[in-house]
Design a protein that fits this description.
The protein is 0% helix and 49% strand. It has strands at residues 3-7, 10-13, 18-25, 34-39, 46-51, 57-59, 67-72, 77-82, 91-98, 113-116, 120-125. It has 126 residues and is mainly beta. The strands form 2 sheets. Strands 2, 4, 5, 6, 9, 10 and 11 form a 7-stranded mixed beta sheet that branches. A 4-stranded antiparallel beta sheet has the order 1-3-8-7, with no helix packed on it. Strand 7 (67-72) and strand 8 form a beta hairpin. The model has no long low-confidence stretch (mean pLDDT 96). The chain has no helices and 11 strands.
């Protein structure tokens, strides 16, 4: 059974940092892009960051310079280091795996990811 399990969310103040983790099991994702999405209250789920199978990383503009995505193949874990957090970063954060192996370009559409975690809540107070 494939599982993606996020952890590391919490309640922090503006300017603080958090590191989210996504532990995978049930299969290997070394040939797949892994991504983080988030959904704020009343909004659609949106792309945050991705790390491709070749380790290239991509970020949505609003988090560039503040968030860093990485993956540890040995531990089968994906991380999202978040710094200088803002109240607008408040959301449920989800880890996801691309449904297409070795995709040549990053996918930012929710529909291109077929494995999802249950989400971890990040709340940033002002």
């Amino acid at each position: 059974q494939v599982q993606l399990v996020e952890s590391g969310g919490g309640l922090v103040q503006a300017g603080d940092s958090l590191r989210l983790s996504c532990a995978t099991s049930g299969r290997t994702f070394g040939s797949y892009t892994m991504a983080w999405f988030r959904r704020a209250p009343g909004k659609e789920r949106e792309f945050v960051a991705a790390v491709m199978w070749r380790l290239t990383t991509y970020y949505t503009d609003s988090v560039k310079g503040r968030f860093t995505i990485s993956r540890d193949s040995a531990e089968r874990t994906v991380y999202l280091q978040m710094s200088s957090l803002r109240p607008e970063d408040t959301a449920a954060y989800y880890c996801a795996a691309d449904k297409r192996a070795l995709r040549p370009i990053v996918a930012t559409d929710v529909a291109e990811y077929n494995y999802w975690g249950q989400g971890t809540q990040v709340t940033v107070s002002s």
